[in-house]
Amino acid sequence: MPGIPARSGAGAERPGAKRRERESMSSLLQPQAGDIPHPFPSVVSQPYWDGCARGELLFQRCDECGGITHTPAMICSHCCARALSWERSAGTGSIYSWTTVWRPQTPAFVVPYQPIIVDVDEGFQLLSNLIGCDHDAVHVGMRVAVQFHAIADGTMLPYFGPEHLGLRACRHPTTSRSRTSCTGTRS
Ligand SMILES: [Zn+2]
C-alpha cells in the first residue's frame, strides 16, 4: 500500500537494524583523554596512584596470612591484620565481566567505552576499561594486559588491552600536574 513502509523483504528496516548499524561502525576503543571524573587519593590509596604514575600496577598483600587486599585498605580483608605490604602485579589477567557504555554519565566521556572487571593473575579483581580493540571483540575470559594512559591533567590511569599487544606505559603530551584520576579503578 502506498505510503506505508514495508515491514519485510528487501529494503525493510528490521528490528534492531539501527542498533546493529551503529555497532558495526566499530573503531578501536581508546583511552579517555578528557576531563573525566577523578578520585582524590587518600593516605591509604596514594601508593597505588603513585604506582600508576610510574607505570606499575600495585596491590597489597598481608604479611600475616598472605592474602591479597584490593582496593587499597588499612587492614587485611582476610584476617584484619594491619601488616599489609605493596607488591607489583605482572599486569596480566582475564576478563571476568564487561559492559558497553553508549550513553555516558557526563559528556566528557567518549563513547563507546567498555568497563571491565579483570581477574588479575595474582588473584584479585580490578575494575578498569578495555582499549586497543573493537568493542565487539570483548568476551569473558579474554586475556588482557595493563596499559597506562594519562588524562588531560597528566594523571595516569590503568587500562587493559589485548594481551598480545603487550604491556605498555604510555603518556599523553600533557601537563605534569599531580592530581590523580580514576577510570575503572576505585580508590
Ligand atoms: Zn591477612
Structure description:
Helices cover 9% and strands 27% of the residues. It is built from two helices and nine strands; from the N terminus they run ααβββββββββ. The chain has helices spanning 17-24, 46-53; strands at 58-62, 68-69, 84-88, 92-98, 114-120, 124-130, 143-150, 156-162, 168-169. Strands 4, 5, 6, 7, 8 and 9 form a six-stranded mixed β-sheet that branches. Bound molecules: zinc ion (ZN). Zinc ion binds next to loops. Zinc ion (ZN) is lined by residues 62, 64-65, 67, 76, 78-79, 81.
CATH classification, class level of the largest domain: Mainly Beta
Number of domains: 2
CATH architecture assignment of the largest domain:
Beta Barrel
User: Might you state the CATH topology name of the largest domain?
Assistant: OB fold (Dihydrolipoamide Acetyltransferase, E2P)
The average pLDDT score comes to 81
What level of helicity do the residues show? under 10%
Order of helices and strands: HHEEEEEEEEE
Small-molecule binders here are:
zinc ion
| C-alpha end-to-end distance | 61 Å
Structural class: mainly beta
- Gross morphology is globular
Radius of gyration: 20 Å
Tally of DSSP helical segments: 2
The description of the largest β-sheet is: 6 strands, mixed
Number of strands: 9
Return residue spans where pLDDT drops below 50 for at least 5 consecutive residues: 1-17, 19-24, 169-187
Question: Can you summarize this structure?
Answer:
The chain is mainly beta and 187 residues long. The protein has two helices and nine strands; from the N terminus they run ααβββββββββ.
